[in-house]
Amino acid sequence: MSALGLPGNIRPIIVMLGLLPLVGCGGDSEPDAPAFAVEVVDAGLQGPRAIIYDAAGDVYLVSNIGGRGLDEDEDGFVSRVSPDGEVLSLQWIPSAGSTVLLDAPKGMAIRGDTLFVTDIGCVRIANRVTAEVIETRCLDNVTSLSGIDVAPEGSLFLTDMGYELADGQLVPSYTDALYRVTFRADQRGSTLALGPDLNHPTGVAVGSRGIFVTTEGGDLLRFTPDGQRTSLIAAPGQIFEGVVFVADGGFAYSSSATGAVYLVNGSGAVSTLIDGISSPGDLGYDSNRNRLLIPLLDENRLLFVDL
């Protein structure tokens, strides 16, 4: 199931374009069994959607949707988890007892001591140390923000999945988009891509190889800062949930349709890192431990896999 409850059970057909020469094809090259450094279960998580590494604090932050992905129900929260799997604070940014309540937090990014969290049509801006939500920025003409990442120069890149609720039902809003924003007084931001041909963009990762975006249509797209688009992976029928860059110049991406996480190394070789899991969400990467961080939305579970 996807973050918004969409079904999928089709094995991926993967075509790689624009990368270094590949060895094998997606999911065909099986690595050694991954080392599960930590598994976090029965810890009170409620729909963990995304996880990121706070390098300054040497801690993991986990967004919990709580209820449904677009319900403005004020029951979302962000958890703080140690690298050994101890839940240091389940409701670190709480769902109750706070002046600012989260509805359905998804993607997260850190810039300095500031934590940015996407929450339906808004971005919550919190202090990375105190967890205080100091500001909320709602964007015009967006309906379902999902992924967020920060570029080295400080810009934020966000995806709008292009869904809305109508009479309690999830329907396309046709606002699918990739945005670049700064949240500074002198510059609001820009639209890099817009329209339903984006196939409901989910995760986003910004690195030296470009701006990578996953979609629920089974696409992994690469954008340049000025919005030029290249298709890296096309897997019709798939539901890609998240993407993250790793140490060797490669990246990992997740598919809720196959219950798998795929790894592409710096040479372009594609392998199935792990499969047989339910609803892997937006991935994180612990650069200190060379560890992939995997939230399992439907199982309320986290996996930390050493690469």
Indicate the overall shape.
globular
Could you give the distance between the termini? 26 Å
SSE run: EEEEEEEEEEEEEEEEEEEEEEEEEE
CATH topology: Methylamine Dehydrogenase, Chain H
Number of helices: 0
Main pleated sheet: 4 strands, antiparallel
Average pLDDT over all residues = 88
Across the major sheet, the strand order is 1-26-25-24
Strand content: over 45%
Count the domains. 1
Identify low-pLDDT runs: 5-29
Structural class label? mainly beta
Assigned CATH architecture: 7 Propeller
The H-level CATH homologous superfamily, spelled out, is YVTN repeat-like/Quinoprotein amine dehydrogenase
Give the number of DSSP strands: 26
Rounded to an integer in angstroms, the radius of gyration calculated over CA atoms is 17 Å
Descriptive report:
- It is a single chain.
- By secondary structure, the chain is mostly beta strands.
- It has one domain: YVTN repeat-like/Quinoprotein amine dehydrogenase (Methylamine Dehydrogenase, Chain H).
- It is 0% helix and 49% strand.
- The protein contains no helices and 26 strands.
- The protein has strands at 35-40, 48-54, 59-64, 77-81, 87-93, 105-111, 114-119, 122-127, 133-138, 145-150, 156-160, 163-166, 169-172, 177-184, 187-194, 201-207, 210-215, 219-223, 229-234, 240-245, 251-255, 260-264, 270-274, 284-286, 291-296, 301-306.
- Strands 1-26-25-24 form a four-stranded antiparallel sheet, with no helix packed on it.
- It is globular and about 50 Å long.
- It starts with 34 loop residues before the first strand and ends with a strand.
